[in-house]
Amino acid sequence: MNDQVAERITLRRAPGRFADVRSALANAWRKRWVKILSVIVALPFIAYFILWLLFARGLPSADSLLHYEPALPTYVRDVNGTPVQSFARERRVQLAYAEFPPQLIDAFLAAEDRTFFSHGGIDYPGLLGAVWDYVSKAGSGERAHGGSTITQQVAKIFFTGNEYSVTRKIREAFLARRIEATLSKQQILELYLNQIFLGRNAYGVAAAARAYFNKDVNQLTIAESAMLASLPRSPTNYDPVAHHDRALSRRNWVLGEMRRNGFITPAQYQEAVAQPLATVRGGAADATRNVGGYFMEEVRRDLIQRYGASAESGPNSVYAGGLWVRSSYDPVMQQAAETALRDGLIRYDRGRGGWRDPGLTVDLSRDWRSQLAVAQFGPGPWRAAVVLSKEGGSATIGFVDGTTGTLPASGASMPVRGSGQSAFSALRPGAIIAVAQDNGGSWGLRSIPEVQGGMVVEEVASGRVLAMQGGFDLRGGAFNRATQAMRQPGSTFKPVVYSAALDAGMTPATLIVDGPFCVNQGSPGQKCFRNFGGAAGAGPQTMRWGVEQSRNLMTVRTANQIGMNLVVRRAHELGVGDYPPYLAISLGAGETTVQRMTNMVATLANQGRAMTPTLIDYIQDRHGRVIWRADTRPCDRCNAPDWDGRPMPRPPLRTRQVIDPMTAYQMVHIMEGVVQRGTATVLRDLGRPLFGKTGTTTGPTNVWFVGGSQQVVAGIYLGFDNPRPMGGYAQGGTIAAPVFRQFAQTAFQGMPVIPFRAPPGIRMVAIDRRTGNRAFGVWPGSDPRAAVIWEAFKPESEPRRTATREELAAPPPQTRSAEHAADRRDSDFLQSQGGIY
Asked: Is the bond preceding residue 700 a cis peptide, omega within 30 degrees?
């Protein structure tokens, strides 16, 4: 009871107590010193509020830094998974905080912000020093330094920019406080070390380590770490090449700060100070060797078409999205294709005799090195050089790296093409030329071919493009002749015609007349077709023989017999092109690309199953998620944890059946004969089953070869960009097929030797190649002009007529014998007399 009474008494007295407090405050406020003290205490808060209203209101939230994703290059891997190409406008590699070595972090803290881990975003003593420096330099034109913490630098990098003003510094301070409240110290340092610009187009310390030392950050020494930490203040002023002494002094200052702060021992300091800068001139873009070339340019175009080039295009853009691209680029096959095609172009050009002046010059009164840098070209040992001077029997030449050499007159003794003047006497100071060193080490002049060409290598089973070369050298122009040049395929189109004929009821043993063939076309009258070189017809011959010897008259007669509508439909089915139903189309008068023709023969080798050629297998975003893949087939139960005893899961076929598999195999089997007995016998001794078809177009303006093995096929053409005759000696079998031979000798090494696979239903029958009659067996050593071969037939087309031993032993007809001398000529040249062609 007493407690309750006491509580009531206390409650009654409370109002009196509050009144006493109010009265005491009122009495105190009447005193002047209290008012002054209150104003002094309130002034900082008022000033802060005013500053907030003027500078901080509307500043971005630091929360965006939690999800910040810097612009990263796109990396391309080859078929083995090795990075071989990067697409970037800035050198940049993003690392996690734990991946930065402690000595590198210590170097930047010593140089930029030694109290980083103890302040709250603003170093107030340093700020006062910066204010004094600013006031003392006001009006002098000099720029004040100091005062910015690493957190403030992060605010400058991401939000405020690099404007030199008091306003920017105040905004920086507000943002630094927000950043410190949002991110941990480790997160702030990670952003800073990944984003800071350090010169040589390098953003972040990982990219700078590559640019200055060609090393990864975990390979840097203490001295090298200090060198990088010396750069943020002014990468240009402390560039180790342009300002060596200044850079060395700044690096040693950073080392001194590291010693003063206890980050390194005095012994480590002495050892590091004694080391030279040892930077790499020009550095490296990154750890990727950047193979470049037509293949990678085609990949770049594909990616830009899908995702755009810059960050404004979306999060997966080529130059900022940080994509990882798995390509089908095979480095061995690509190098073999580049070398083979370039050597083929050089051989053809050399056969024309003399030296061709490329017509390129530089202004020697200006920086000739930078002008020469845009004219780099040539395979392997070839180098671009500029003639600096010429005296007596030699010329002084300069290279893009600043070195010089001597070109003796004996190294440029060939005549200038089209004139009797020697190449050496035609050289003038300022001229850009191609040179290479001979076995003795002296420089010799080289002629850059004017003729061009394209080559595509494709994997039969998947359609993956393993190699691509679109000309002599990409640096001479980005036009990719493998995918963009529309050329007449000539007799490489013949497999299209004869595969349609096989579906129309003909067989490889069907006799077709190799003789005059004319069609009425109204005014001015008849149009007559001819064989290559105007060779006379050989009379009735088998389809196989006609393909092997590439006879135009047999081809156009076949197309006329089955109807051109079937031929152009087959061209569409095989992806060669869409053409009008004119007879000349059957002889390769329609235009197409090397890539389409290569895919056509790949479809034949794949038993009529077509694939879409691809250079990219799949694409991952910066987080490793697959965002696109070429193979989109579903596979039920492929990821099942346990096997349930049912048949193993298999994804459906990626291919689409475009022509009958038996027809495709018959065509491949016939084209094997082109290599064994026909126009591509230069490939016969490569030691593996090969098929193919040569081609030479009117003029001849283009020479072709398409074909390959069961695993890999290739397509090649050579010709001038502005089509003109290459010379009567130019034929697919003598110029294009040797390019494939050189390629195969390198690319096919170690590849299993696999025969071409016949589909179910095919029957192999012994046939007299000359008459098409069925034989009773194979007679070794028989006349090769009347050889008995095993021919592929569909079940319903197996021939019933037979040939006796006596008939097989009989000499071939006189018409056939007269043509024997021309059997291996590339009969692809159509001589037309106006009209359709």
From this structure: yes
Catalytic-labelled residue, pool 148, 230, 327, 491: 491
Query: How would you write 508-574 as a 3-class SS string?
Result: CCCEEEECCEEEECCCCCEEEECCHHHCCCCEEEEHHHHHHCCCHHHHHHHHHHHCHHHHHHHHHHC
**What CATH number has the domain spanning 355-446?**
2.40.50.140
> How far apart (Å, rounded) are the C-alpha atoms in residues 786 and 63?
85
Weakly modelled stretches of the chain, pLDDT under 50: 1, 5, 9-12, 144, 285-286, 778, 785, 813-837
Annotation says 165 is catalytic: no
Bridge partners of residue 443, in order along the sequence: 437
**pLDDT value of residue 287:** 53
Q: Which residue has the tokens 């869409």?
A: 578
Cβ–Cβ < 8 Å for 494, 556: no
Known catalytic membership, residue 112:
yes
CB 316 within 8 A of CB 324: no
User: In CATH, what number does 490-614+657-822 get?
Assistant: 3.40.710.10
Nearest Cα residue to 130 out of 157, 149, 154, 117: 149
Give the pLDDT of residue 523. 59
Selecting among 112, 190, 338, 672, the annotated active-site residue is: 112
With both helix axes pointing from N to C terminus, report the angle between 293-307 and 331-351 in degrees, rounded to the nearest 10. 120
Q: What is the pLDDT of residue 419?
A: 81
Instruction: At 528, list the tokens.
Output: 């007559």
Alpha-carbon distance 211 to 194, whole Å?
14
CATH superfamily of domain region 89-273: Biosynthetic peptidoglycan transglycosylase-like (1.10.3810.10)
Where do the domains of the chain lie? 2-62, 89-273, 355-446, 490-614+657-822
HSE-CB at 549 with a 13 A cutoff on CA atoms is: 26
> What DSSP line would sit under 19-51, residue for residue?
HHHHHHHHHHHTSHHHHHHHHHHHHHHHHHHHH
pLDDT tens readout for residues 92-135: 888 999 999 999 999 999 999 999 999 887 876 665 655 555 55
What token pair was written down for 663? Answer: 């027809």
Torsion of CA 535, 538, 544, 549, to 10 degrees: -20
From the number of C-beta atoms within 10 Å of its C-beta (0-12, 13-18, 19+), residue 535 rates as: buried
Q: Which residue, chain included where needed, has tokens 């007493």? A: 2
Instruction: Give pLDDT, residue 172.
Output: 73
| pLDDT reported for residue 621 | 95
Q: Which residues contact residue 607 at a Cβ distance below 8 angstroms, ignoring those fewer than 6 apart?
A: 661, 664, 665, 757, 759
User: What are 611's strand-pairing partners?
Assistant: none
